[in-house]
């Protein structure tokens, strides 16, 4: 038989079940199963990891200044774009990246980003910089020292391309161009003047009278070194009998032409000199000699007849081109192209492209050049060309300035000085120029 104590305990237990049923909504007053306590623990860990990750990300973008920030460092303020260059622990507003680099020691330039709060309490200095210096600099691997093209345009001004080229670009053997009333034959990397009094006759003799004459400006024509004038020539002692040649040659005289045909149908022309020697004439020499000696006689001979003859050079200029090849045609632009010749020197060659409509400078984005403008030697002013289409002369000690800008002297390429004239020039780049006008140095 249950005691009173047992009955009271049973009543309490039953009352507890009823209260639990009403409060938890469990039918029949069933007891709730105990919850898994690991779930809130796992959830808490996940939330903690998310908070940690967010903190790391925020810290990444609001990182403090590096330990060695006091000198040679360009500091860009996050979310503002304000730029400072650090000099002896002081922050100075700087006008452009080129100026910041020029203020750094050679090879020591650094760049970092910091929040505005990070810079609170750091002393400021006055603004420094060259107002018209480059805003961005090409990487050393993106320098383009050759393959530049300068083309005539229908507008009359030169159109210059660096790192790119106009459509339809292809090499040609020659071009006929004019600068004002002066006419030139462009061939063999040179410009050859053609006097106006001989122009029509010379073009006809050279079989160029159907070629278009392309108008160019003085800057373009100067890209090609001056060659000898294309004009008729003759021998002053023409008609003098010559007795030292083969007896099978009939009555040779000075000034006459001996013609040898080969199996392919081509012909070689030899000019007989008064001393008995013969000079082989190339395509241009032959045309100009016939123009200057309209009554010249020609005699067909065999190759064996020439075996005993001593050879010499003609009296024509030695720098005339040997042959002309195809030329610039209608609806094409004449283009000077900067290339490396067989001896490793930069020279101008002639090409043609589809017609260019306007002048100007086009430099492929992200490229540029570091060049020394020379007159044939190894000395000359060093210039930086950027994709802004402008050049800046480097001042100060050239090697130091080159390193301050992030390059080495091995990145400098020599080019003919007239090519620099194609680009608008900015102010000199040097450390002294950056400090110019600054009082609190």
UniProtKB/TrEMBL annotation:
Q: Which residues cross the membrane?
A: 40-61
**Stored InterPro entries:** T7SS_EccB, T7SS_EccB_R1
Alphabetical GO CC annotations of the entry are: extracellular region
Q: Tell me if Cell division is a UniProt keyword of this record.
A: no
Q: Which UniProt keywords apply?
A: Membrane, Transmembrane, Transmembrane helix
Compositional bias of kind Low complexity: 303-323
Q: A Pfam family matched by this chain, by name?
A: T7SS_ESX1_EccB
Q: Provide the residue span(s) of the region labelled Disordered.
A: 298-326
UniProt entry tagged with the keyword Magnesium: no
Classification via PANTHER family: ESX-2 SECRETION SYSTEM ATPASE ECCB2
Q: Under what name is this protein listed?
A: Type VII secretion protein EccB
The scientific name of the source species is Actinomyces oris
């Amino acid at each position: 038989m249950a005691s009173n104590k047992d009955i009271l305990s049973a009543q309490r237990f039953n009352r507890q079940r009823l209260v639990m049923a009403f409060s938890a909504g469990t039918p029949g007053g069933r007891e709730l199963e105990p919850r898994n306590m690991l779930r809130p623990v796992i959830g808490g860990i996940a939330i903690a990891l998310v908070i940690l990750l967010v903190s790391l990300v925020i810290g990444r973008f609001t990182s403090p200044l590096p330990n060695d920030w006091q000198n040679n460092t360009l500091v860009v303020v996050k979310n503002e774009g304000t730029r400072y260059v650090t000099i002896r622990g002081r922050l100075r507003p700087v006008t452009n990246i080129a100026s910041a680099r020029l203020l750094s020691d050679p090879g020591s330039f650094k760049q970092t980003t910091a929040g505005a709060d990070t810079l609170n309490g750091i002393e400021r200095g006055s603004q420094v910089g060259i107002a018209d210096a480059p805003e961005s600099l090409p990487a050393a691997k993106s320098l383009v020292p050759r393959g530049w093209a300068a083309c005539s345009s229908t507008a009359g001004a030169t159109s210059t391309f660096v790192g790119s080229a106009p459509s339809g670009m292809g090499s040609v053997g020659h071009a006929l161009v004019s600068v004002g009333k002066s006419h030139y034959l462009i061939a063999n990397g040179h410009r050859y003047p053609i006097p106006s009094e001989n122009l029509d006759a010379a073009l006809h003799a050279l079989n160029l009278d159907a070629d278009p004459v392309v108008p160019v400006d003085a800057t373009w024509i100067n890209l090609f070194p001056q060659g000898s004038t294309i004009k008729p020539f003759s021998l002053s002692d023409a008609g003098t009998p010559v007795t030292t040649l083969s007896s099978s040659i009939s009555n040779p005289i000075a000034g006459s032409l001996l013609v040898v045909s080969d199996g392919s149908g081509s012909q070689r022309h030899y000019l007989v000199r008064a001393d008995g020697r013969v000079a082989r004439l190339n395509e241009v020499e032959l045309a100009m000699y016939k123009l200057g000696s309209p009554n010249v006689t020609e005699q067909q001979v065999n190759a064996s007849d020439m075996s005993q003859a001593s050879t010499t050079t003609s009296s024509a200029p030695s720098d005339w081109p040997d042959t002309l090849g195809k030329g610039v045609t209608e609806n094409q632009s004449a283009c000077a192209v900067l290339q490396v010749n067989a001896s490793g020197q930069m020279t101008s060659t002639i090409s043609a492209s589809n017609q260019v409509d306007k002048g100007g400078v086009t430099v492929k984005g992200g490229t540029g050049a570091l060049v020394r403008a020379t007159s044939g030697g190894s000395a000359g002013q060093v210039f930086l060309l950027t994709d802004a289409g402008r050049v800046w002369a480097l001042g100060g000690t050239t090697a130091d300035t080159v390193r301050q800008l992030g390059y080495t002297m091995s990145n400098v390429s020599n080019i003919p000085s007239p090519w620099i004239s194609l680009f608008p020039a900015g102010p000199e780049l040097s450390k002294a120029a950056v400090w110019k006008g600054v009082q609190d140095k």
